[in-house]
Amino acid sequence: MTDENPPRTPTLETEAIHGGLEPDPETGAVMTPIYASSTFAQNAPGEHQGYEYSRSGNPTRSALESNLAHLEGGEYGRAFASGLAAISTVLNLLESGDHVVVGNDVYGGTHRLFTDVYEDYDLEFDFVDTTSPTAVQKAIRPATELVWIETPTNPLLRIVDIEAMSELAHSEDALLAVDNTFATPVLQRPLSLGADIVAHSLTKYLGGHSDIIGGALLTDQSTLDEQLGFYQNSVGATLSPFDAFLVLRGIKTLPVRMERHTENAQAVATWLETHPAVETVYYPGLESHPQHELAARQMDGFGGMVGVELDYPIDIVESIVSETEVFTLAESLGGVESLIEQPATMTHATVPRAERLQAGVSDSLIRMSVGLEGLSDLKADLDQAIDAGS
Ligand code: P1T
Question: Is 105 in contact with 361 (CB distance < 8 Å)?
């Protein structure tokens, strides 16, 4: 190899299918088999072939962890029984008295985990508008050990500047963790922008088919990975080999799915902006979005999530979301099917109302996960639901 021919980095499409994966060494099976075994035979005490007990490590889970690490451009991956189990594992790194700066517009379950579980362990959380580096800078203090952000945020689809957050966190020797669930590694790779840890709910786009609950953590720092691995094994909320298989299978089509999710969401958002019943549309791909330019710079596409405020009172909004037929009224996101929900009563119901309103999440906000159905069916469905419900 000469200087003119530096090693090529494979494309993300290729990494999704092959990254970190080999055909099964025993049989040549092209698809990673489901190693449904809780334990592994040892030749002599402590002498084994890399696996001893499936909570500590399982070949199907390892294949997924390695594939995910490749996609995020990290060295190390850990898969968990849910997104929240993964997030909880990051908090296991902290000690009582530590302080955490968190976005004020994060998944309701993340907010609940931090305030209703970890505050009891004497961790302190400040929920701030992470789209404002000044607000984050003001909140950071010597006891701050972690800055936790989502971008795009759930549910308002705000965009947070990952590089700016990394500089701020590192100025106080705090870790920056980025929940990359909404973007996926296809649209955004936070480790390359200075994040220490990337978190995922695998339940969403990575699984992609609404058939598993799972989570993951990725990093390129070996010491950090060892610590996360210690808590993964000690606490034990690990992903089953069956679910790891389904996520591996889902990831193979992730780049293709994200392209179509983005195309459909952009078209739905653009059309909604012109609809007479609509007050505001939240979608980072719209020029009207306050962080549109940052999104265009930081991301390779704007994703499949759309938020909307309608010009109707709350009871009418509730009947509209109950009238859709192609969009299913349900929590979650990122599957092939379109979902619609009302964060105030569903995904963010556990966030105290005053706090939720202060963060900008109104009672009447509607959130959509735009799926892969035909665009004309999606638009017609929203149109008929607005008519029928109002
Ligand atoms: O549901 P679970 O796999 O535990 O993942 C939690 C989670 C973490 N991070 C983000 C950004 C999320 O959106 C979620 C889960 N969110 C939903 C169920 C939802 O409908 O928003």
Answer: yes
Residue 151 near residue 164, CB atoms below 8 Å: no
Ligand 1, atom nearest to 214 Cα: 3
* Nearest protein Cα to ligand 1, atom 12: 107
Same domain, 208 and 305: no
Determine the atom of ligand 1 nearest the C-alpha atom of 110: 8
> For position 2, what pLDDT does the model report?
55
Distance of CA 32 from the midpoint of ligand 1 (Å): 26
Rounded to whole angstroms, the Cα distance separating 224 from 230 reads 10
Give the pLDDT confidence of 195-219 residue by residue, as tens digits: 999 999 999 999 999 999 999 999 9
Same domain? For 36 and 160 the reply is yes
CA distances from 23 to 27, 30, 64, 149, 319 (A): 8, 5, 13, 36, 51
CATH number at residue 273: 3.90.1150.10
Distance CA 2, CA 86 (A): 43
Q: The domain containing residue 372 runs over which residues?
A: 255-389
* Bond from prior residue into 7 cis (ω within 30 degrees of 0): no
Number of folded domains that form the chain: 2
| CA 261 centroid distance within chain | 15
- Provide the token pair at 349: 């119901």
Which of the residues are catalytic?
55, 107, 179, 204
Distance 49 CA to ligand 1 centre (A): 35
Over residues 317-335, the pLDDT tens digits come to: 999 999 999 999 999 999 9
DSSP code at position 246: H
Contact 293, 161 (CB under 8 A): no
- What is the per-residue pLDDT for 3? 61
State the chain's mean pLDDT as an integer: 97
pTM for the predicted model, two decimal places: 0.97
Type of residue found at 173: D
3 located within any domain:
no
